[in-house]
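Lay summary. Proteins are chains of building blocks that fold into shapes, and those shapes determine what they do. In this project we predict the shape from the chain. Here is one chain we studied, written as its sequence of building blocks.
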Amino acid sequence: MASTPFTLDVATCLCIAFALSFMPTAYILGRSLIPSTHTRNRILFYWHAYDALTHFFIEGSFLYECFTSFTTLPAGFGRAPYFLGYTDRVYGAAYGSGPSARLWQEYAKADFRWATADPTVVALELLTVFLGGPAALYVCYLLWKSSRPAVSPATRGSAKATLWLVAPALATAELYGGFMTFAPEWLTGSAQLETSNPVYLWFYLFFFNTLWVFIPLWILWEAGKELRGAFVRAEVASVGNKSK
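And here is the predicted shape, written in a compact code that computers can read:
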């Protein structure tokens, strides 16, 4: 597939603005729902709210296009695609005409696989949208619950325990999903990626995707600290009880 030069037209600006709009939305929600005294919880809330919104609305729109937008192949086409059991159709955003199709047509200028219903990408996105999105939303709920001063210590403790089980599990899944998305390209010389254009390389590919690397790694680090702290406190309490 030939590369497309980057053009900052109205449609491109709208696509970028939509993709970035969830950042201030998550920020406003975090400031509204998490007290300022819980700085780490606010940062975690910002991320997981942004994560959930992205999974539901952006990646959800990708799945929508993959299952609803298609074109019929001419007779005698060399290789049947077999997506959803059809041998005479090709699916994906490239064949749609709505706003979500235009969004993914724009991103596909950097990663060509997102223009069509690549089975591996679709399979990963099914997990991301239907498991990752709800998990991120649930983490937001747990952060809100564990930050409320009015609830009992037992309730806050239970919410924190569940939080540090779900959040690192989701972070691990995000890292795995990113690896499975890009590792095939690294092994094949990035054949489906547009790496010669700096906007597509550093903004579309690097910026939008490495967010799901650095922040999940930080969440795993914080989860490790919580786990170590819980075991240390348990051991100290155990020694204290034995000495009585």
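What the prediction tells us: The CA atoms of residues 34 and 147 lie 6 Å apart.
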